[in-house]
Amino acid sequence: MSDHKPTVLVIDDNPALVYLLHAFLNGSGYHVVNALARDAVPTARELQPAVILLDIAMPELDGVQVCELLRADTDTASIPVIALSAQLNLHIHAAAMQADAYLSKPFELSTLLETVETWATRRSDASHRDQPAVLPTAAPAYGALRARIAAAEQTHDLAHP
To answer: Which domain, by its residues, includes 102?
Structure first.
């Protein structure tokens, strides 16, 4: 059995969440490294992690900007990015920034682990970008969220009060 642990790069400005992710994923068999947003590309280039967990709302560079930089770099463009955010419209940001998947905060640790495992195994598959960004386990929540947004848009139509 190999002692090689897949690496997960965490880019988040919340120290408590970084600590939790590090402890949980390390205990689940992953090597976890955290980086500041400004160091994301060089760190990802050097480590070539199996997965990047990327917060959307951060000072300096936000997650959308970081993901654009990662996707523009040939050495990091194929690394799966899982967007993390408490924003209700996270799926819109995740799609716009070309994230592979997204998790809304707060999330269940079991869902996080399943998502990381799914994308870590796809890391070696160069065609993973052509597959849906919404994981099967997230599909019901995604559908429910879309329904809530549609209902809110109908209820709060600011263009036609």
So the answer is: 7-133
pLDDT in tens, 3-42: 578 999 999 999 999 999 999 999 999 999 999 999 999 9
Question: Element (H or E) spanning 12, and its range?
Answer: none
Task: Establish how many alpha carbons lie within 13 A of residue 120's alpha carbon, considering only the half-sphere containing its beta carbon.
Answer: 21
Report the CATH number that the domain containing residue 15 is assigned in CATH.
3.40.50.2300
92 within some domain: yes
Using CA atoms, how far residue 129 sits from 19, 34, 81, 100, in Å, is 29, 24, 11, 7
- pLDDT(109) > 90: yes
Q: What is the DSSP letter of 130?
A: G
Q: What is the pTM of this model?
A: 0.74
